[in-house]
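Continuing from the previous page of notes. For each protein in this section, the sequence appears first, followed by its structure tokens. Read the first protein now.
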Amino acid sequence: MMHQNRAILRRRPATWVLAASFTLVLNLPGCADLPFGGRGERVSGGGYQSKDQVALLLPVQGPLLGVSDAVRDGVRAAASVDDAKSQPKVVSVGSGTPDRVTETFGQALGEGATYVIGPIEKPSVDALAAEGSLQVVTLALNEGTSAGKPTRNLFQFSLSPETDAVEVANKAKDMGFTRALMLYPDDVAGKRRADAFRAHWRRLGGTLAGDSSFDPRATGNPAKGLLAQGGADFLFLAANAKQAQALYPKIRKDAPSLPVIATSDVYPGDVDPVRDRALTGLYFVDMPWMLGLEKKNDPLRRADLKISAAHLETPLGRRLYAMGIDAYRLAPRLPGLASQPGATFAGQTGLLSVDAMGRVQRELILGRFTETGPEPVGG
């Protein structure tokens, strides 16, 4: 069994499918002119022409206003640091209700949009997907429910909870683990993560030695019976920061040498050694921007942000802001990524690629809590 203080990341075979190691070199025939970013390199420029216009098809009122504001600020921040000669015009077009999204989309085109970012709501994404073909590259900020044919020029970018669970499975496989235990909250989000992990872990050839759900409102030690089953070489913990603060010390007491890998929910994005001391040794997956892994000369490094906004004070707001940065930089690169299987773009939210359905896939970073704060785990 691998001890908690060691992490050996094994490289996957060269025949990986779309989501490869975050540090993979892009070296594909015909890609020399596509600024995707290679090993350790993040491209800061948007890749637009000065005549381009980006329409933000996002809510301007209603319950998703906070979400769209965080994304919109990220987009505008990314545009503001582009070279003036290649800086597109960025305009906001209220997405309206799902039954009117095609109308507002047409309005954006009529006003000169050459790229569209949005919408956010799943029904609105479904409405655009039903069109079969769109006139300009459109990056929806959610995944629709249709599993049919891809829609021409429609791409889908989501920060879904399933991604974290799939990435935990990938990282565990890279670390040489084969048998897992799983502990997750008995709620909608917890079950989604559990189902995603279970299915992907089995696709990777792993064995689920045991799993258990817990009542998020209850006290006690829900991991005790699960750990007593034994026979596993790591535990997948699907929990938020507060739950992990309570559960992880109990897991450590009962199974001190068993590695535990959690989702990004355990890390709010700010370093607090006192608060996080109880999590020392815990592995988790997260986006590069949250772990401060941007290039030192990137004008949008978290450490150098001069703006003060309410959404940058919350974990979700921070991640949505990074999503906005990536959405802006991805849009003009999407056709190239889609046409080159295996091509990747080193974004703030992960190593990004596009699958056959036009969905953006994210490879996350493996981090670990230490006595001085979270740190990335090297390969």
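Done with the first. The second protein uses the same format. Note its length before scrolling.
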Amino acid sequence: MLFEELSGPRLVGIARLAEQSELLEAKQRVDYREMEARSFITKCASPNRHNLWTVNPYRGCEFGCRYCYARYTHEFMELRDPKLFETRIFAKRFRVSQFLADLAKVPAEHAIWIGTATDPYQPAERRYSITRRMLTAAARTGGHKIGITTKSDLVTRDIDVLREVSRANVVHVNMTITTLDEELARLLEPMAPRPSLRLRAIEQLTAAGVRCTALAHPIMPFINDSDEAVESVCAAAARAGVVSFSAAALFLKPCSRQVFLPFIDKFFPHLSGRYQELYKRRAYLEGDYPERIHALVARLTGKYGLVRRGVADLPDEWPVSPQMDLFPA
């Protein structure tokens, strides 16, 4: 009993798996660890998205986006410092047989999204290629709707596999582009590829026959929310060949507030009071602001000949609402 009291609470579930994970590599800024996966494909917990399944090859994301709302997923592993989300990266130990068994459980009419909590093409993917191995396995199946959400041009490495997957499945890529201002992008998304590389990736993907959507997520009040700024992203993405465009206002879970609000204090101190006021009562904005973004996207997609949401034969875009929980433990 005394030993248990001194050693702290006994970890269970995903926290236990994290504690037992094997160190793969320690860099100056980040540790990579390998952990067992209870499953690779998880049904979305939201009742509004009963037809959505999620895949995250990694836990944590090295891109370190200041606004990231998925940081709380590390809390399931009792890693409560929000910075650990970007410095302790867990690569799931991949087993083809288990992945294919998970895939077989997904009804054909449902959508499977890769990268709902962590970017599947973050730097760890260059080392461990788990996303590529998942796609290679998926190419052996048919009849699925498979989407990828990323902000990395590394996705173009897998054009050959994506072509194979698309022979018998629907494949779609969401590319997040919050701004074309590369200095601003470096502040907001310090370790992510610059916007010009993401646009070039869209060009390469669409030239290869892979359909793409540009996500201007999130729209941050007084930072990247002018009509001109949003239209510049939409216009550039349209030129690159996307079929659809989406934008949504920033929302701040408690874990992301711990990172984003100090970031605002440091780099946009003149906005500190406004953000405290906007987000003091809730994690997401309501009323005129999101309605304005909705109307702007409707106007821009009409102007540039894009669809605002996926058409019937494409996986639905996400997140539909900041209240959704796409990231079950």
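What the second structure shows: Residues 62 and 86 are 4 Å apart (CA to CA). The two ends are 30 Å apart (CA to CA). We return to this in next week's lecture.
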